[in-house]
């Protein structure tokens, strides 16, 4: 006969195990509630991310981890109960995976540079239109759009030595350098550069507008004469808004010169979201206009 009783309900130890699993599942749901609530305006993103997620959420995970460990120990001592052990193990795995996600988020935030504004050509920065600036102001955007932004003093605590440096320099240092690095995986950012397309400006402009529409972004400006496209992407989680500015100009030798800028409305670091967005859009433009 096995030393582990698998025949009947595990009694009060089963109740503890089920409670631990319920707590671990609730911890996962808590993060979803924090993000979705901020997305639909139930509370501010600062409260949803800072207080509910990184403060209360982390404490909830530690509580779930502790209760699941206690439930597992209880299931194994004196007439072990297999059912209670399995439930408590599941609780531990759920809580552990949640903690791993939060830890990975923190590690990524430290690894990536403290910037929220990237573009393909800082020597000739894309400037926002009055319409886009008005929308940002109405939305309470905290980050200004500048020709030569610098890393603010508030970055010193997590990224020592970066305050006061030009964002353009920090972006360049973080980008993949194929002449020096073996793989893009070793660099925080993908390489961003102006794309010269072998397609006339009107056709390139129209194609890019369609690519923007396919992404579901809100188009703010689409002025073919100026070669200006401005759009806003809103994230599902927390409802963060990032603005994308695209400049499509004709070249003297034919074809089009395409530059892209992407900037977040709030937050010191974008966790690489803007650079990834620009790179993905450039890749699609290159495929569409090759």
Model regions low in confidence, pLDDT < 50 over at least 5 residues: 1-8
CATH class of the largest domain: Alpha Beta
Number of strands: 6
Overall 3D form: elongated
From the 3D coordinates, which CATH architecture of the largest domain would you assign? 2-Layer Sandwich
SSE pattern: HHHEHHEHEEEEH
User: How helical, in percent, are the residues?
Assistant: 40-55%
Strand content: 5-15%
Number of helices: 7
Structural class: alpha+beta
- The rounded distance between the terminal residues' Cα atoms is 71 Å
Number of domains: 2
State the major sheet.
Answer: 6 strands, antiparallel
Mean pLDDT across residues: 90
Computed Rg? 25 Å
CATH structural fold name of the largest domain = Alpha-D-Glucose-1,6-Bisphosphate, Chain A, domain 4
Walkthrough of the structure:
This protein is an alpha+beta fold. It has two domains: 11-111; 117-289, Alpha-D-Glucose-1,6-Bisphosphate, Chain A, domain 4, CATH 3.30.530.50. 48% of the residues lie in helices and 13% in strands. The chain has seven helices and six strands. It has helices at 11-39, 45-76, 82-111, 130-138, 167-174, 201-215, 273-289; strands spanning 117-119, 195-197, 218-223, 228-234, 241-250, 256-264. Strands 1, 2, 3, 4, 5 and 6 form a six-stranded antiparallel beta sheet that branches. Helix 1 (11-39) packs antiparallel against helix 2 (45-76), helix 1 runs parallel beside helix 3 (82-111) and helix 2 runs antiparallel to helix 3 (82-111). The protein starts with 10 loop residues before the first helix and ends with a helix. Mean pLDDT is 90; it is low at 1-8. Residues 144-163 are annotated as: Disordered. InterPro entries: DUF1499 (IPR010865). The chain crosses the membrane at residues 21-44, 56-77, 84-104. Keywords: Membrane, Transmembrane, Transmembrane helix.
């Amino acid at each position: 006969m096995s030393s582990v009783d698998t025949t009947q309900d595990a009694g009060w130890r089963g109740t503890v195990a089920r409670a631990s699993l319920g707590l671990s599942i609730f911890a996962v749901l808590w993060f979803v509630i924090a993000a979705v609530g901020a997305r639909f305006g139930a509370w501010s993103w600062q409260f949803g991310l800072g207080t509910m997620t990184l403060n209360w959420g982390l404490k909830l995970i530690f509580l779930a981890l502790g209760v699941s460990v206690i439930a597992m120990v209880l299931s194994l001592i004196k007439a072990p109960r297999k059912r209670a052990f399995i439930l408590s193990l599941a609780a531990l795995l759920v809580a552990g995976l949640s903690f791993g996600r939060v830890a990975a988020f923190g590690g990524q935030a430290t690894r990536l540079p403290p910037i929220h504004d990237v573009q393909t050509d800082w020597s000739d920065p894309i400037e926002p239109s009055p319409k886009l600036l008005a929308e940002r102001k109405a939305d309470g955007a905290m980050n200004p759009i500048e020709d030569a932004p610098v890393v603010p003093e508030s970055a010193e605590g997590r990224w020592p030595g970066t305050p006061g440096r030009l964002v353009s320099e920090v972006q360049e240092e973080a980008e993949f350098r194929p002449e020096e690095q073996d793989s893009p995986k070793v660099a925080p950012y993908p390489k961003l550069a102006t794309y010269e397309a072998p397609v006339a400006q009107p056709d390139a402009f129209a194609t890019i507008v369609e690519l923007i529409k396919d992404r579901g972004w809100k188009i703010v400006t689409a002025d073919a004469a100026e070669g200006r496209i401005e759009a806003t992407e809103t994230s599902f989680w927390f409802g963060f808004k990032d603005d994308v500015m695209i400049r499509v100009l004709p070249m003297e030798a034919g074809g089009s010169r395409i530059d892209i800028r992407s900037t977040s409305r709030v937050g010191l670091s974008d966790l690489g979201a803007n650079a990834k967005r620009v790179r993905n859009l450039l890749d699609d433009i290159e495929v569409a206009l090759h």
